[in-house]
Amino acid sequence: MSNFVSSPGRIPSDAAQLLNSQTSSSFGRDNSTPAQPILYSEDLPPHLQLQQQQQRAIAGRRRQIAVPKVVDVTGEKVRESFETFIEEFVDPEQADDDWDGKIYLAQIEAMKTYEYSTLYVDYQHLLSRENGVLATAISEQYYRFSPFLLKGLHRLLKKYAPSLLHTSLLHNTEETVSETSTSSQANERVFQISFFNLPTVQRIRDIRSNKIGSLMSISGTVTRTSEVRPELYRACFTCDLCSAVIEGVEQVFKYTEPTACPSCENQSYFTLNVSKSQFIDWQRIRIQENSNEIPTGSMPRTLDVILRGETVERAKPGDKCKFTGCEIVIPDVSQLGLPGVKPQSVKESARGSELSSGVTGLKSLGVRDLTYKLAFGACHVASMVNKAGGNEQLEVDLNDQEVFLTSLSDAEVLQLKEMVKDEHIYDKLVNSIAPAVFGHEVIKKGILLQLLGGVHKQTVDGINLRGDINICFSAAGLTAAVVKDEESGEYTIEAGALMLADNGICAIDEFDKMDIADQVAIHEAMEQQTISIAKAGIHATLNARTSILAAANPIGGRYNRKLGLRSNLNMTAPIMSRFDLFFVVLDDCNERIDTQLASHIVDLHMLRDDAIDPPYSAEQLVRYIKYAKTFKPRMTKEARDFLVTRYKELREDDAQGLGRSSYRITVRQLESMIRLSEAIARANCTEEITPSFVAEAYDLLKQSIIRVEMDDIEMDDEERPTGERQSQPSERVPPVSISYDKYVSIMNMLVKKITEDEKNGGDGLRSIL
């Protein structure tokens, strides 16, 4: 030990020879690279100089003992098998005389052409090779073999596409790449292998610790996304004591420094060399269980998903996605602090006399048991397009109908064709909606048309015209919210109900209980089908392509027939104008209807499912709706003229005072009639809208708008002249009233009678009186 001690700034000759012969780094440094000169700095404090000398002495003694590297033999075999699979696999469905069908070699060429960094591997192709041995090994120990798979991919790229390995040498020749193979790791491209098409999909609730590190697929709804940030992938450090450069330090879920300097055994003083380090895009999203997977009475489970590289920004809040990757365990650092105490950094005073003496206990230091939490590292993200009862994507091509039919069995296709040929398919579909609910045929029609929806259109200027139908039975959490991440402290967007129901239907109860400010927040979502956020420095426009099915209670709990619909609901006029259909559910006393309703409810309790016999089952109804939504019906000239005539009638009735609220009949109601006509045409699986479909839409709209706007007509006697005085006060006689429907029927009969009398030469109204 005494032989290595010298004055500051100088190195003994024997120690210098020993260190200069052992300066090659065990972290990937090339032996041919000249070693960095090891010099002491006179600016270092004396205690660091002494520590440096001691560490150099220990390093010299350790290097005299050769330590063999540990080699994972199984991992190397997996790498060789994977390389053979990529080079030799042939897809029999695509192979022909002009092409050998080696799809993965062709994909490597495409990666070279389009500068991609991800190789997509079909898991079913792995299962078809070697009796699935390679697929089983990767599936069961994916986290262990992932570095070997990436190493195999690097070897293949070096063989078939060497110009893709370095980002700064994309346009150079292969000879130049080979000559500069020892360039800095910062120029090396980070590659990924993405597996997809796994046979099973796990639910979030079923994930357990015995699946950590294994390859699996999970599904869920994206509720929160973070912004894309750079992540330190492989770091390059410089030793502060001997200036040695240490490359290729892998980062394991946190900022990781080298365990020790290979030259001087320094374990604490390192500086990150950013220019020579590798970074990769990183994003964290949070997914929630799908609504159909949550058990009754349970809270939905959530899970954080980590995306890297080209998989970032593949999922948006509200999307239902399938993620393929492995389950990982990361430290839960948010549990280390004291509850209710904000963590803050404290600078220690330089004067030792000011330091407090003694230890006050671990509680004051904020020490907690280190816990871990589960996360999911995804290598592949796929959107789940086929959703039961939900709308398909807006951009639908003509081949979607053929693709949907090919996904069905022969028996299902035959059954679907028989349903399409049925002349009374529309009425049977209506009767199949909520068969356990007695009556309310008009409301069931509206819900069926809402499920089918209209045709989404886009103007030349790029403005989207919604095709979804909003129905109403007489805020944050509903649209979207900006929340602060508990770990990073950054603000992220958390999806609300409208975003989670994207391409589906959002059912909102107690709609009238919302504040006016909350109702204003959904104006844009109901008409433009987007949600704009401008909070906490985040400016974003998110999709909310959903139909709204809302239920509201009248003011005071009872519907006042003497008042209009607007006076009975605590809703603003702009919100009401955005609904296509309104239905008022009244509980009128009717002996015949009450008897039928009571009998229906009792039969449900006695016979359960045998008490109802809908024309089609729920599976048949869902299958038919999916098929019907592949149609894009267009308006014929006859239907167009009929639609214009009916709209003029609605406007005339409104102008003559037959409608209580003139704000109701606007151009939005014309668009509602168009959407309803398109939905009825879809229900009949036809590409043309006929006048009969427009008539059905007009009747449905008129029943939902006009009927509820009318009061009962009171038939009072004329008032007595004020000069007449009664000898004694008469008893108050209750006014006689008739419904608006009877009033209109009597009025039409009188008009018809007067018209006939005038045609026969009579005096019309005078002759009747």
Radius of gyration (Å)? 37 Å
Give the name of the CATH superfamily of the largest domain: P-loop containing nucleotide triphosphate hydrolases
Q: How many strands in all?
A: 24
DSSP strand content: 15-25%
In the CATH hierarchy, what is the architecture of the largest domain at level 2? 3-Layer(aba) Sandwich
Question: Approximately how much helix is present in the residues?
Answer: 25-40%
Catalytic activity: ATP + H2O = ADP + phosphate + H(+)
Protein name: DNA replication licensing factor MCM6
GO molecular function: ATP binding; DNA replication origin binding; hydrolase activity; single-stranded 3'-5' DNA helicase activity; single-stranded DNA binding
Organism: Candida albicans (Yeast)
Summarize the structure.
Belongs to the MCM family. It is found in: Nucleus. This protein has 769 residues and is an alpha/beta fold.
Characteristic terms for this protein:
769 residues; alpha/beta; mini-chromosome maintenance (MCM) complex, chain A, domain 1; OB fold (Dihydrolipoamide Acetyltransferase, E2P); five-stranded mixed barrel; elongated; disordered N terminus
Structure, described:
It is an enzyme of class 3 (hydrolase). This is DNA replication licensing factor MCM6. The structure is a single chain. By secondary structure, the protein is of the alpha/beta class. It has five domains: 2-63, no CATH class; 73-182, mini-chromosome maintenance (MCM) complex, chain A, domain 1; 204-336 and 368-383, Beta Barrel (OB fold (Dihydrolipoamide Acetyltransferase, E2P)), CATH 2.40.50; 400-474 and 552-709, P-loop containing nucleotide triphosphate hydrolases (Rossmann fold, 3-Layer(aba) Sandwich), CATH 3.40.50; 736-769. The chain is built from 24 helices and 24 strands. The strands form seven sheets. It has a five-stranded mixed beta barrel with strand order 3-7-8-10-9. It has a four-stranded parallel beta sheet with strand order 16-19-13-20. Strands 1-2 form a two-stranded parallel sheet. Helix 20 (637-655) runs parallel beside helix 22 (691-709). The relative contact order is 0.07. Mean pLDDT is 73; it is low at 1-41, 169-183, 347-359, 362-367, 386-399 and 659-663.
